[in-house]
Amino acid sequence: CAISKASASVMSSVLKGKTKAEAEALFEKFHKLVTGTIDGEKEVDTLGKLAAFSGVSEFPVRVKCASLAWHALHTALSSDEYRVSTE
């Protein structure tokens, strides 16, 4: 899926040099962005390249595509579990 690949690519570039806490904060903000909880246009300063994914919220089926790599990151940072879910 092109959306999944693009999201993972941008994620890896914006997370370089970030701390675990900063990565978790970006996960939360990105998740809110793709689920439509926050407006990407108002958050461009803090989201940078990630704001491009704000349109994903209009297509609920694509939210999982955009957030798959982010959920894998979140699980890797927050637990020892190997199971990842986008739910």
Detail the topology: elements first, then pairings:
Layout lengths: L1 H14 L4 H15 L9 H4 L12 H19 L9
Low-pLDDT residue intervals, each spanning 5 or more residues: none
| C-alpha geometry | globular
Number of strands: 0
How many DSSP H or I helices? Answer: 4
Secondary-structure-derived class: mainly alpha
Order of helices and strands: HHHH
Average pLDDT works out at 88
What separation lies between the terminal Cα atoms? Answer: 18 Å
Largest sheet: none
Helical proportion, percent range: 55-70%
Measured by DSSP, the beta-strand proportion falls in under 5%
Radius of gyration from the CA trace?
12 Å
Kindly describe this structure:
The chain has 87 residues and is an all-alpha fold. The model has no long low-confidence stretch (mean pLDDT 88). The chain starts with a helix and ends in a 9-residue tail after the last helix. The chain has helices at 2-15, 20-34, 44-47, 60-78. The protein is globular.
